[in-house]
Amino acid sequence: MYLSHLIGKTIVNKSGVKIGKMVDAVATRINTPLPLVSGIIATRGFSGKPFFISKGDIARLEDRDIKLSTDTIDFTPYDRRDMEIRLEKEVFDKQIIDVKERHLARINDVELTIQNKNIFITGVDVSFRSILARLKIPTWGFFFKYNTIPWEEIQFLGTDLPVKVKIDYERLETLHPADIARFIFQGPGYRKGTQIIQSLEENIAADVMESLPLDVQINILENMSSKAAGRIISEMESHWGADVLSEFPTKKAEEILNKTDNDKALIIKQLLTYAPDTAGAIMKVEYVSVEQNITVSEFYDRLRSYENLPEFLTYFYITESANSKKLVGIVSLWELFKASHRNRINTVMIKNAIIAKPQESARRVLKRMTQYDFSAIPVVNKHKHIIGIVTLNDAIRLLIPKDWKTRIGLK
Hints:
SH3 type barrels, 3-stranded antiparallel sheet
């Protein structure tokens, strides 16, 4: 049965005398798969104060009427206790995440189930039909169907429920970061978005931040302490961290960088020295480079030794020696796959690599990448030492309106 069907129903005592009407239900154990309904709330007349009826005093709870098992009624005004929540007043219309289907929804009704004289919440309904039911409008069930989500598959978005319950986001970590980012963008606003970000594992939180529009990233970090923001920045790719910190006042950016991992902070500070919209400003510093005299077999061993490989692995960058960062060639993953394991890297690499300079316009770099059909291009300094790479995705971001710079596919 659904709560909206019970709201407004007449309540009679054991003798059949009308004592009021139902206006709400009270639940506990909100964080469990089957929260328990501890009772209902009723009123008498138009100005009567709400009073509580325990589930133990309810003999029948049905759509047509509600009958009690006693004639003794306590009309003391209801005063919510810790760990209790009013379903109609405090759960209806709340935004949730359907974890299984990966989308945002709004609670329009609550499904109740009676088992062994206990009343449990088994799900929530997010359909248009439940809105009509609440408004007491005929639903013509043939046309409008319920869309009920099991309680254990939902995640409240935000912690503004006025009860002392723990709402965590552990189930969100099973979703793709871009989905979590979309929920934050579409749903709770910056402050609650900060709560969600801070509740996630830091590496997941960093991926979510990278998937958010820049203005949302800024607002979320502004709502964090410098220490918490520094931990998130430490896990983000360096160019993403530099991108968002470039929008902060110098003093605030320095405070966050002081709480960021030392190596990451040094890289970000270097990236911040480049002018906006240059190759240096948008380049990734996470890439794989190896010296030219190793074999393909040794290269694969080297890859396996990496604890955390960069996300972009289409090309690998070949340096003069193990102690030198001077770029002498590029090899694609496909060429390595075709090559004999006994071959040396310098026999399969492209020697005349197409490169970019850090001060060069990113638009020019993008044009060169499309001209030669490269999905990434190395950035080298005046000594021809590789200092980063510009990927096609990063370069294209310059052509996208600022409000659209996101990976969550909202437009």
